[in-house]
Design brief:
Layout: E1 2-7, E2 10-15, H1 20-26, E3 33-35, E4 38-40, E5 53-56, E6 59-63, E7 74-76, E8 78-80
Parallel strand pairs: 1-7, 3-8
Antiparallel strand pairs: 1-2, 3-4, 5-6, 5-7
Amino acid sequence: MTVQISFDGEQLEGRDGQSIGGILLANGHRAWRDAQGGERGIFCGIGICQDCVVTVNGVEGVRACQRTACAGDIVERESRA
């Protein structure tokens, strides 16, 4: 079964039960957060480093590597100084 999410307006498809980070990676997105002048994506993949945080359905600071994607999720980039 598949799940569809929106990332910055782009519709992406992944597998049911897959993390948001996994779907982003599978669809060619390697970075989705700007911080300290550089781009960030998944670094540790276990929720410790917080490099992969995104906004999901209006909630900021969600770890993409830890959050299971749900059909219809709206995922947006985050920028932190």
